[in-house]
Design brief:
The protein is α+β, with helices and mostly antiparallel strands and 441 residues long. It has 14 helices and 19 strands. The protein has an 8-stranded mixed beta sheet. The chain has a 5-stranded mixed barrel with strand order 2-3-4-6-5. Helix 5 packs across helix 7 and helix 5 crosses helix 14. It starts with 7 loop residues before the first strand and ends in a 20-residue tail after the last helix.
Length: 441
């Protein structure tokens, strides 16, 4: 007695994960035509379905006349349902191909797809971002991004941290007044959040260990490969933690999320030609340098930075090139850091802060440190930074009622992803980048 063959609908990634067991089975794949080639009695259709790309081979002898000639005239981005048999294909990155038995066109494009397999300029691609997302590289990057975000959440969720969502509308600056986006809030001036940190400090005093994860906004007037005006930041904050504990947390966190992404998205990382050895090198301990030690390294490299000045992209690149893993630079001069940073009691001219600089030129991916927990000192800092004390009344309350040492940091998702993927520019790491002069699409 023979069992009827059931055609299973599968995704391309099923071939990657369990292709062996699907060999010679008839399957259906639904997706879009990304490329096509012909050779005599064979048409090669490259079908993408969001999880990957598979070659579907139409052989004249396997299909009826109409299907064979149709397969020779399909336009790029035609949506399709393909039925066929799974076969091994040693040359394919996924290891399998489909021997086509039937084709169903869902929709034919009404015009030629603007992004052909040939090279296009970045400006053109950015203007067509909504379509560019379909390309193999962009799909790989966004899949890696989703896994990175999951790894970030899982890291904190599995270690007793409580997710506390920070507001987007805020009454005051957190990271300096020069990068604020002002909005009209019922006749009052409000700002899009630059960081959820101040709210996480309130959260930490209520819940001990907290984090927020959401979009943040900076009116950055700089056109660099590292700056977005809207980016995603994860910000843990912990009561009773000092700078040393903060650095340990940042180090452990980075090792864990990089390892997980490397493990779960190897196929996508390979599609981006990422050197996986560089990711495997991301192990504890990370080098830790004081700002003063970093200055000495820069000096040796021919870059003389006067004490008290912040590092720019060039300095960060020089420092990161010395190491094969992220480097943690702590105790910057307080004068270049935010008002809330606690000063080192042993050396009040420096702050108990840390920046983590990623390897390979991406620059700073983490900024954080220990917070000023003394009411009077903090009041003085708010005044010294020219910030309106009224707007910080609630924040000062945190120092009035049971203040404790506490610390945290913020990790920018896009720069981290650019580093993990080996991308030159952050614009490809977020589905719809927002930058100076870029808000469409
Ligand atoms: O160093 P930042 O400004 O730190 C803060 O906002 C702290 N309040 C965080 C905290 O302690 N809770 O920003 C943190 C990180 C940077 O290291 C960088 O990765 C990212 O946010 N970032 C940006 N990413 C893209 N575009 C920009 N314009 C960015 N500005 C900061
Ligand atoms: Mg910073």
């Amino acid at each position: 007695m023979s069992t009827p063959r059931v055609t299973a609908r599968i995704y391309v990634e099923d071939l990657l994960h369990r292709g062996e067991e699907l060999i010679d089975r008839e399957v259906e794949l639904w997706g879009w035509l990304t490329n096509r080639a012909s050779k005599g009695k064979l048409h090669f259709l490259h079908l993408r379905d969001g999880t990957g790309v598979v070659q579907c081979v139409v052989y004249k002898g396997d299909v009826d006349e109409a299907t064979f000639s149709r397969a020779d005239h399909l336009a790029q981005e035609t949506s399709l349902k393909v039925r066929g048999l799974v076969r091994r294909d040693a040359r394919s990155p996924i290891g399998f191909e489909i021997g086509v038995r039937g084709l169903e066109v869902v929709a034919e494009p009404t015009a030629e797809f603007p992004i052909s397999p040939k090279e296009h300029g970045t400006a053109f691609l950015m203007d067509h971002r909504h379509l560019w997302l379909r390309s193999r590289r962009q799909v790989a990057i966004l899949r890696i991004r989703a896994t990175l975000c999951r790894a970030i959440r899982d890291y904190f969720d599995s270690r007793g941290f409580v997710l506390v969502d920070a507001p987007i509308f805020t009454p005051a600056a957190c990271e300096g007044t020069s990068t604020l986006f002002a909005v009209d809030y019922f006749g009052e001036k409000a700002f899009l959040t630059q960081s959820g940190q101040l709210y996480m400090e309130a959260g930490a005093m209520a819940l001990g260990r907290v984090y927020c994860f959401g979009p943040t906004f900076r009116a950055e007037k700089s056109k660099t490969r590292r700056h977005l005006t809207e980016f995603w930041m994860v910000e843990p904050e912990v009561a009773f933690m000092d700078l040393a504990g903060d650095m340990d947390l940042a180090e452990d966190f980075l090792c864990e999320i990089v390892a997980r992404v490397r493990r779960e998205r190897e196929h996508e990382l390979r599609a981006l030609d990422r050197d996986l050895g560089k990711l495997d090198a991301i192990q504890k301990p990370f080098p830790r340098l004081t700002y003063d030690e970093a200055l000495a390294i820069l000096k040796d490299a021919g870059k003389d930075v006067p004490w008290g000045e912040d590092f720019g992209a060039d300095e960060e690149t020089v420092l990161s090139e010395k190491f094969d893993r992220p480097v943690m630079i702590h105790r910057y001069p307080s004068q270049v850091k935010a008002f809330y940073m606690k000063r080192d009691p042993a050396r009040p001219e420096v702050a108990l802060c840390v920046d983590v600089i990623a390897p390979e030129g991406v620059g700073e991916i983490i900024g954080g440190g220990q917070r000023e927990d003394d009411l009077a000192v903090l009041e003085g800092r708010i005044d010294a930074h020219g910030l309106p004390r009224e707007a910080f009344g609630w924040y000062l309350d945190l120092r009035r009622y049971g203040t404790v040492p506490h610390a945290g940091f913020g990790l920018g998702v896009e720069r981290t992803l650019a580093w993990i993927c080996g991308l030159h520019h952050v614009r490809e790491t977020i589905p719809f980048p927002r930058m100076l002069e870029k808000i469409v699409p």
